[in-house]
Design a protein that fits this description.
Elements: H1 2-16, H2 48-53, E1 60-63, H3 73-87, E2 93-99, H4 106-126, E3 134-140, H5 151-157, E4 159-165
Parallel strand pairs: 2-3
Antiparallel strand pairs: 1-4, 2-4
């Protein structure tokens, strides 16, 4: 009987201690998500009225004949319009990128692309655009617009791209 009393006492002591709750196998509810903070409003540019009334010119392209850096009449007309628009925005600079088709060596195409970009730059300067606002660089044949290997693609790739920008990074 003494043994029975000991076993019952031990059982009572064991039950008296708090047992951890068994883990539930039911899916738990996800914690409520908080909405992200609202973004701060963007600061308006210094000359908002000027930019809104005159956004300036967009990118433009002029085209060249094969193996030539001579400006064609259509190119001159495009440059006239571009210069007129860029004059009204003294904060804008222009990057002229000369491009070539895939024919010719890398060195030749880089030189021809530079001659094309320089021709457009000189024309813009003759129209009164300050030289410090214009940068002329050559891409050679590294940035073709048309991927083909035919006359239509080559014609599209013999061009200058006129890119207005309002910062002076890389401008000289």
């Amino acid at each position: 009987m003494r043994v029975l009393q000991i076993v019952v006492a031990a059982g009572l002591v064991a039950c008296a201690h708090a047992q951890p709750a068994p883990e539930s196998t039911a899916p738990q509810q996800p914690a409520a998500r908080q909405a992200p903070p609202a973004p701060l409003p963007a600061a308006p540019p210094a000359s908002t009225a000027q930019v809104a009334s005159n956004p300036g010119p967009g990118p433009a392209s002029i085209y060249f004949d094969y193996d030539s850096s001579t400006l064609k009449p259509g190119a001159r007309s495009e440059l006239d319009q571009f210069a007129q628009a860029i004059r009204t925005r003294p904060d804008l600079h222009v990057r002229i990128e000369g491009n070539c088709d895939e024919r010719g060596t890398t060195e030749y195409n880089l030189a021809l692309g530079q001659h094309r970009a320089d021709a457009a730059k000189k024309y813009l300067e003759r129209l009164g655009l300050d030289a410090s606002r214009v940068t002329a660089v050559s891409n050679g044949n590294e940035k073709p617009r048309a991927p083909g290997h035919d006359e239509d693609s080559w014609r599209e790739n013999r061009r200058d791209d006129l890119l207005p920008a309002n910062d002076t990074v890389g401008m000289r």
